[in-house]
Amino acid sequence: MGHQWTYPALILIPVVIQSLKQSGKLNEAPQILSPGYGGRVEYLGKMQSDSILRITDLREEDSAEYKIRFRTDQTTWEPTFPGTTLTVTGLQVKVTPATVTEGQKVTLTCSTTCTLSDNPNATYIWYKNGHVTNQSNSLFLNPVSSEDAGRYSCSVEGHEDLHSAEETLTVTYGPKNTSVSVSPSGEIVEGSSVTLTCSSDANPPVDKYTWYKKNVTSPKASGQSYSITNISSEDRGEYYCEAQNGRGSMNSTALMIIVAGKQTSVMTAAVGIIIVVLVLILCLSGFMWFRRSTAGSDATTGIQSVHPDPNSDTYTALNMKTRSPEYDTLANVRDFPTVTIPHIDADASDYEN
Fold first, then answer.
1. Looking at the predicted structure, is the pLDDT value of residue 147 above 60?
2. Looking at residue 351, what DSSP letter applies?
3. Per the count of CB atoms within 10 A, which of 76, 244, 253, 273 is most buried?
4. Taking the CA of residue 269 as centre, how many other CA atoms within 13 Å lie in the half-sphere pointing to its CB?
5. Backbone torsions φ then ψ of 76, nearest 5 degrees
6. Quick one: the chain helix, strand, coil %, rounded to 5?
7. CA distances from 42 to 25, 28, 153 (A)
8. Stretch 266-274: mean pLDDT, rounded?
């Protein structure tokens, strides 16, 4: 009679030997089984009464019909009736529908053909990329997104060490996160070259890239990269790309290209710097000379003379340092010292004589 097991260990009792009076020993289990069972088979029987075989870590390739055979020093016995049939089946993940596009719904079901006698209403544990993600009989994703893509497996609660085989959920979607990058970065000088690159996330991958310049109807180029050589001021403007696959399309954000004038040669720049320095030196020298000459003039013009009165021996001078807007300060200056005439006492008679 055939049986099915999904437990990690199985006890097989193919034949119970009621009596063995003959001398001899039964063959041990590892000698009966093929090398593929190494380390997973244990013989628990009593040589003279019964025979028990335990197989651990069951695999689908363990599925077979098992019989017992014993041998003595006088005879070998082998049953003519059918042996015990072992069918090993694991948990299976089924994805419905098999192909799903982002925004649709998908159902993942964990199933087995075995009867779980110890837990008929078992709860299944779901794993995504090896990590627990949910705990339910079925996994419903509605709507499904690109983040849901991955490898899914399941196990029965209480037997978490027995995962099903992984089933990959593939979600198709149109281009996302479309962007443009420029190389080389920095200032773009007239006469140089520049390359624009378009990148986008899509499944299946983008199969067509188209380049456009803003406010220009016709496309500029096709392909993931667009190179502009010997760039000029006419090439300045905003550029963007369109990414397409079988699920849709998406435009990138526009990228502004600014073209600067041609760079001056190193020699020309050096000459210009020297000229500027010389001009600054000349200006500074002229300014210092002017300051010195002004200071000397101030020292000699502190007092300014005014033409004297012809009928007077007194000169009038204007003090330039103390003059004010309201009036001028005048100082009397004589051109010669005052002469004191001595007083002589004399009688009138002296003159008469």
1. yes
2. H
3. 244
4. 5
5. -125, 135
6. 15, 40, 45
7. 17, 9, 30
8. 70
Q: Are strands 208-213 and 171-183 parallel, antiparallel or unpaired?
A: unpaired
Tell how strand 208-213 and strand 194-203 pair up.
Answer: unpaired
Q: What is the pLDDT of residue 268?
A: 61
DSSP annotation of 136: S
| Burial 131-163, CB ≥16 within 10 A → b, else e | eeebeeeebebeebeeebbbebbbbbeebeebb
Shared domain check, 15 and 62: yes
Compute the distance between CA of residue 316 and CA of residue 305 in angstroms, rounded to an integer.
Answer: 7
Instruction: State the residue range of the domain holding 42.
Output: 2-88
What is the chain's mean pLDDT, rounded?
Answer: 75
Strands 53-56 and 41-43: antiparallel
CATH of the domain at 160: 2.60.40.10
CA distances in angstroms from 104 to 96, 101, 177, 201, 247, listed in the order given: 11, 6, 20, 19, 13
Helix (H) or strand (E) holding 338: none
| pTM for the model | 0.55
Residue 280 lies in a domain: no
Reported as a single tens digit per residue, the pLDDT across 31-56 is: 445 556 667 887 776 655 667 778 88
How would residue 24 be classed by pLDDT, with cut points 50, 70 and 90?
A: very low
Residues in the chain: 353
Indicate whether 76 and 15 sit together in one domain: yes
Query: Distance between CA atoms of 20 and 38, rounded to whole angstroms?
Result: 29
109 is written with which tokens?
């079901």
Domain annotation covers residue 296: no
Number of domains in the chain: 4
Residue 285: inside a domain: no
302 and 331 Cβ atoms separated by less than 8 Å: no
DSSP per-residue codes, 196-216: EEEEEEEESPP-EEEEEETT-
Instruction: Decide if 272 is inside a domain.
Output: no
Tens of pLDDT along 207-234? 999 999 999 989 999 999 999 999 999 9
Cα 324 from Cα 329, distance rounded (Å): 8
Per-residue pLDDT tens digits for 237-251? 999 999 999 999 999
